[in-house]
Amino acid sequence: MVKLVAARLGALAATDGASVEADATFETMPSVLFDAAVIPDGEAAATELSALGHAREFLRDQFRHAKPILVLGEGRRVAEVAAIALSDPADWAIARDIVPFMEALGKHRNWERASDPPRV
Predict the structure, then answer these.
(1) Residue 46 CB neighbours (<10 A)
(2) Is residue 119 part of a domain?
(3) pLDDT tens digit at each of 120 positions of the chain
(4) In which domain, by residue range, is 42 found?
(5) 4 in any annotated domain
(6) 3-state SS record for the chain
Protein backbone atom coordinates (compact mmCIF):
# COMPACT_ATOMS: atom_id res chain seq x y z
CA MET A 1 0.00 0.00 0.00
CA VAL A 2 1.37 3.40 -0.95
CA LYS A 3 0.82 6.39 1.33
CA LEU A 4 1.66 9.99 0.52
CA VAL A 5 3.26 11.73 3.50
CA ALA A 6 3.58 15.49 3.16
CA ALA A 7 4.14 18.66 5.14
CA ARG A 8 0.39 19.14 5.52
CA LEU A 9 -2.86 17.32 4.83
CA GLY A 10 -4.97 18.18 1.84
CA ALA A 11 -4.54 18.49 -1.89
CA LEU A 12 -1.07 18.85 -3.38
CA ALA A 13 -0.47 20.08 -6.92
CA ALA A 14 1.67 17.84 -9.12
CA THR A 15 3.91 19.36 -11.78
CA ASP A 16 1.49 18.18 -14.49
CA GLY A 17 -1.37 20.07 -12.84
CA ALA A 18 -3.00 17.01 -11.30
CA SER A 19 -4.04 17.07 -7.66
CA VAL A 20 -3.14 14.37 -5.14
CA GLU A 21 -4.24 14.08 -1.52
CA ALA A 22 -1.74 13.62 1.28
CA ASP A 23 -2.57 10.66 3.52
CA ALA A 24 -0.53 11.83 6.51
CA THR A 25 1.98 14.43 7.63
CA PHE A 26 5.63 14.01 8.56
CA GLU A 27 4.83 15.46 11.95
CA THR A 28 2.06 12.99 12.83
CA MET A 29 3.08 9.75 11.07
CA PRO A 30 6.19 7.98 12.41
CA SER A 31 8.45 6.60 9.71
CA VAL A 32 8.79 3.30 11.56
CA LEU A 33 5.31 2.42 10.21
CA PHE A 34 6.64 2.41 6.63
CA ASP A 35 8.67 -0.31 4.92
CA ALA A 36 10.43 2.16 2.61
CA ALA A 37 10.50 5.77 1.44
CA VAL A 38 10.63 7.52 -1.92
CA ILE A 39 12.23 10.95 -2.18
CA PRO A 40 10.59 12.60 -5.21
CA ASP A 41 12.22 14.41 -8.09
CA GLY A 42 11.58 18.07 -8.76
CA GLU A 43 13.33 21.27 -7.80
CA ALA A 44 10.39 22.70 -5.86
CA ALA A 45 9.87 19.44 -3.95
CA ALA A 46 13.56 19.22 -3.09
CA THR A 47 13.63 22.80 -1.85
CA GLU A 48 10.53 22.37 0.33
CA LEU A 49 11.49 18.97 1.74
CA SER A 50 15.08 20.04 2.43
CA ALA A 51 13.80 22.94 4.52
CA LEU A 52 11.32 20.85 6.48
CA GLY A 53 12.86 19.41 9.65
CA HIS A 54 10.15 16.77 10.07
CA ALA A 55 10.81 15.47 6.54
CA ARG A 56 14.56 15.28 7.16
CA GLU A 57 14.00 13.39 10.42
CA PHE A 58 11.51 11.04 8.74
CA LEU A 59 14.17 10.11 6.17
CA ARG A 60 16.92 9.80 8.79
CA ASP A 61 14.73 7.35 10.68
CA GLN A 62 14.16 5.32 7.52
CA PHE A 63 17.93 5.21 7.07
CA ARG A 64 18.59 4.34 10.74
CA HIS A 65 16.11 1.47 10.51
CA ALA A 66 18.00 0.12 7.46
CA LYS A 67 14.96 0.45 5.21
CA PRO A 68 15.04 0.92 1.43
CA ILE A 69 15.01 4.48 0.10
CA LEU A 70 14.40 5.44 -3.53
CA VAL A 71 16.05 8.75 -4.43
CA LEU A 72 14.71 10.29 -7.65
CA GLY A 73 16.53 13.11 -9.44
CA GLU A 74 16.61 16.28 -7.35
CA GLY A 75 15.62 14.18 -4.34
CA ARG A 76 19.36 13.64 -3.87
CA ARG A 77 19.49 17.18 -2.43
CA VAL A 78 17.00 16.19 0.25
CA ALA A 79 18.97 13.03 1.06
CA GLU A 80 22.19 15.04 1.34
CA VAL A 81 20.62 17.64 3.65
CA ALA A 82 19.21 14.77 5.75
CA ALA A 83 22.78 13.36 5.99
CA ILE A 84 21.90 10.14 4.18
CA ALA A 85 24.97 8.62 2.54
CA LEU A 86 24.32 8.18 -1.17
CA SER A 87 27.86 7.29 -2.19
CA ASP A 88 28.19 3.85 -0.54
CA PRO A 89 28.04 1.33 -3.43
CA ALA A 90 27.62 -1.53 -0.93
CA ASP A 91 24.31 -0.09 0.31
CA TRP A 92 21.94 -1.86 -2.04
CA ALA A 93 18.91 -0.42 -0.20
CA ILE A 94 19.59 3.13 -1.45
CA ALA A 95 18.25 3.06 -5.01
CA ARG A 96 18.00 5.60 -7.81
CA ASP A 97 15.81 3.52 -10.11
CA ILE A 98 12.59 1.58 -9.61
CA VAL A 99 13.95 -1.91 -10.40
CA PRO A 100 16.68 -1.92 -7.72
CA PHE A 101 14.20 -0.30 -5.32
CA MET A 102 11.67 -3.09 -5.86
CA GLU A 103 14.42 -5.65 -5.29
CA ALA A 104 15.41 -3.85 -2.08
CA LEU A 105 11.78 -3.91 -0.92
CA GLY A 106 11.81 -7.69 -1.29
CA LYS A 107 14.84 -7.91 1.01
CA HIS A 108 13.10 -5.62 3.53
CA ARG A 109 16.17 -4.11 5.25
CA ASN A 110 19.89 -3.69 4.72
CA TRP A 111 21.07 -4.95 8.10
CA GLU A 112 24.67 -4.16 7.16
CA ARG A 113 23.74 -0.47 7.37
CA ALA A 114 22.46 -0.78 10.92
CA SER A 115 24.78 0.47 13.62
CA ASP A 116 24.56 1.23 17.30
CA PRO A 117 24.65 4.11 17.79
CA PRO A 118 23.25 5.04 14.37
CA ARG A 119 25.56 6.84 11.95
CA VAL A 120 23.01 9.58 11.29
Answers:
(1) 22
(2) no
(3) 899 998 889 898 887 888 999 999 999 999 989 999 999 998 988 999 999 999 999 999 999 899 999 999 999 999 999 999 888 888 899 999 999 999 999 998 888 876 666 565
(4) 29-107
(5) no
(6) CCCCEECCCEEEECCCCCEEEECEECCCCCHHHCCCEEECCCHHHHHHHHHCHHHHHHHHHHHHCCCCEEECCCHHHHHHHCCCCCCCCCCCCEECCHHHHHHHHHHCCCCCCCCCCCCC
Instruction: Check residue 90 and give its pLDDT.
Output: 83
C-alpha 75/C-alpha 107 separation (Å) is 23
Query: Tell me, what's the pLDDT at 115?
Result: 65
60 near 83, Cβ under 8 Å?
yes
Q: How many angstroms separate the CA atoms of 120 and 104, rounded? A: 20
Q: Tally the domains of the chain.
A: 1
Residue 71, strand partner residues: 39
